[in-house]
Amino acid sequence: MAKEYPIYCGGEWRTGGKPLEIKNPFNDEVVGTTSYATGQDLEDAIERAETVFCNGGQIPAYERAGYLTKIADQMHARRDELAGLITAEAGKPLRDSRVEVDRGVFTMRLAAEEAQRMTGEQIPLDLMPASQGRFGITRKVPIGPIAGISPFNFPLNLALHKLGPALASGNPLILKPPTRDPLTMLAVAEMVHEAGVPAGMVSIMPMDRDLGDKLVTDERFKLLTFTGSPDVGWDMKSRAGKKKVVLELGGNAGVIVDRDANLDFAVGRILTGSFAYAGQVCISVQRAYIHRDVFDTVVDGLIEAAGNVKMGDPADETTELGPMIDEKAVARIHEWVQAAESEGATVHSGGKPDGRFYPPTILSGVSRDSFVCTREAFAPIVILFPFDDWSAGLDQINDSVFGLQAGVFTDKLEHALMAFDKLDVGGVILNDIPTYRIDHMPYGGVKDSGLSREGLRYAIDDMTETRLLVINRP
Length: 474
What we know:
single chain; six-stranded mixed β-sheet; Aldehyde Dehydrogenase, Chain A, domain 2; 23 strands
């Protein structure tokens, strides 16, 4: 019998809302059951968040760090359980799920450290004669209840990038986990509870769309942090009112390969960046620009390597590419590939769905106006373009409404610095793929890819206000 996971409402376990059954994307087996939060659940969670924030004052740094460390320790101890749960409800290959849990532990340990590093500064104010004898002191103060909405593709770690900095900075968080795979964070809620986090500081509750919309519009929230699709995110921002908004949205990340780059290394990394977790990563490699002198070599290498990618049961230790999240996602990307092919594109590998699987797909000759090039594919697909001039190749990467991260393979310092100067993205990854991320770095995009940055210290900047004390010594 599948395990039932109650929702976590401000320190209290609850059941009774509309049932929510979670199925394995690979075989449709029931993984577990939970329920949607009700309107009363959300109201209670908000009231408890306001109460603990207003009445509790600033939770001491050692306590915040202690809670986060306990949660990290429990996650580490339950690593296999959490990895298995991610694989079962998200269809992520088990080896990748283990990596996600390890990153989650790292994220929470970093959050514990950041809780102890929320320092202010001393500012000299005697810059004019009238201010002689004065100086200022600043400190970071929490802003109040935070609403968080996290996506299905990293059901643990992307949610922890909201939970970790919120707890580190002393802010209550109400988190809406993804409807497709909420059980992982409900398991984490058990750890939050066991760590002794004060009631009201954390609520983790699946919500239907109508109820979740109140996270956007309710003025009692001081910040909305959302990771998901661009259309949804920008619409939320337009309706969020006066609250701060942090958006981590989509992309169609580009990579550029110079003729002097280490081609074997570049091919291996592009393969990983294009097809890991069936391409369902917002910094997945979608467009690759390759110098014409080495274009055929790189194309041949990618085709050969793609043919060796093992698809299958994500619970199998040897599986590299599992199913997409649902049939709708498969149908969408196949429609885009077919459209590109009808416009003259060449399909070098893949391009034909197999149930919920979409095999590693490599295209060239794609029109730059094609959906598969201009939109976020979120699928195991990479489009290859030749270029002749380095500067023009960088321009082609910039020819996108998105700007999350870009990968640059070159051994020329001049070309590397030109890429850093010219690429209109949130992060330039030199001699690696745009899919690279470590959890303490500033992460986020420009243009349609988002607003502000995550990464523990950078997220805390948005979750706090700078308060100034001016001291006069007459």
